[in-house]
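ARCHIVE CARD
SHELF: 3
SLOT: left
DATA:
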Amino acid sequence: MNYGKKYTGLLKRKAISGYLFILPFILGFLIFMVRPFFQSLYMSFSNVEVSAQGINSVFAGLVNYKRAFTVDTEFNRMLTEQLGKMVVNSFAIMVFSFFVALILNQKFKGRALVRAVFFLPVIISSGVILGVEYDNALLSGLQNTIENSTGGGTSITGAIENILTTAGIGTKAFEIVFEVVDGIYDVAIASGIQIIIFLSGLQTISDSMYEAADIEGCTKWESMCKITFPMISSLLLVNWIYTIVDFCMRSDNEVMEKISDTMIVKLDYGFASAMAWVYFAIVIVIIGVSSLIISKGVYYYD
């Protein structure tokens, strides 16, 4: 009975520590985000006029939403393309980050240096350095030099792609695969945080579990399926949600670019808010459904 009380007290202290850890975010959201959140929602149902006197909103019902779905065909196309790209890239990032974390979790010389190298994408993808990267004339010139050095020839991956697509076998599937391969740089750039999360989870798995599995005659693949995956399954859910949210906030997201241009350049706050809320709602539904599916296979342990 005494042990039960101590265990309950420990759980309460852990819960309090967790809430204190996220308290700054909660306060920041309540102070700075709640009011703009509802203002944007109201603007999506209004015709917003910007003048020297300020912003005037007139309630217009579902006009902006009807315009987004029935009038502006470009938004529908961008929305469909970006959502498909989000799913494909998210799967690629999850697979890439997991296997890189497995490699970095092994014991070898220079492991700390290699881990630092794989963490560089997190630094590179930060705001200022990302802008330097995209505006860097040296990198642009280097890219052009590499392209010109090929003499217009076809690369190995390009030749394989031409053969497979010409054969007509699984054309769409191969197109998706080669798109991911061509975008491996973007996948690596977006995988830094996920690698760290997976790596932290792998390091919590006791070596004695793998030793016991080896004694029982389990293969490496069986150990991965029976030990590694269940023990880090909760982190799969965390990384999946993070990856989707991170993709939606990327600077090269066409939907976000259109929303920004509509709001900043055209000063059409009502229509921009409606498109933003449509995008937000669809992403939330995707996160909710996928999280529900993944959570059914999550193994929680103390």
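SLOT: right
DATA:
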Amino acid sequence: RVDMASSLVKNDTKNKKYTCKIWRNIRDMLDVEYPEAALIAEWNGPRMSLKNGFDMDFYLEWGGNGYSWLMRNYDGTMDSNPHNIGKAYFCKNSGTGIDKFLDEYLPTYKATHKDGLWCFITCNHDTIRPSAGLTVEELRLAYATLFTLPGAPFVYYGDEIGMRYLPLPTKEGGYFRTGSRTPMQWDDSANHGFSTADAKDIYLPVDTAEDAPTVAAQADDPASLLNSVKSLLAFRHAHKDLNSDAPFKVLYAPKAKDDYRPFVWQRGDLICAVNPAGVSIELPLELAEDLKIQYTIGQAEIVNDTLSLGAQSFVILG
């Protein structure tokens, strides 16, 4: 995983001519000496990275880009409101349509998917945690979508339990990013199981709220976010149609109208659908008669050629 992969050569050309040449040389070396190695770029430039030696690139949070519209695009500031309901697609009451994501994603996916994987992250060390703007119910739908889209999904530590973004003062130039770098929260022991040192000696503090999420609190709860993540990933691994490079096609993505803003896509022989809004909807899909519900979050029902999808629900048909 290469940090700032696009900035290897200073004062490079607009198209990163010399940076790309070096990465191609490194790729040639890896293919000979470490043929099983995967090269992953922190770049968010798959048209360059995937054609110049990298196997994968990350779709990164850049304010107002397609990825940002899925889980972020906040109203207000994170410093004053650690849980900030914003304009993102998965916010229940945002009214935002999936088109703000697809308008950017689809052209790049179509141009690069044969070259490698453009991968989704739940978060990283440079990005405000998704829990800052999404409830647990909204996180479930967001993760279900990310885990069933093309590419290899990356789960940032703690996002699987909904660890909070903490509005902390910057630490050694971390700026707003500091609040996404706090210790993993395992249980209710000292420092949530991260360290037995005095709390004042920990580089960054753990969440001290009484309801701070921990692995121990969620491990045996079938309804927990942690077990939702485990269930989703288990389903993904059990179905080759959800492989990172399996075929992908958008089936239904209408412009948002009030609370009607569904998204339906196909991976191989599976069909996935999500309804992030707070009302039930019906989708006029021409579904095969033998198509059955394979996985759900919330409520879903097939009646003839209509898919009824409950408020804040996700379904996989196959």
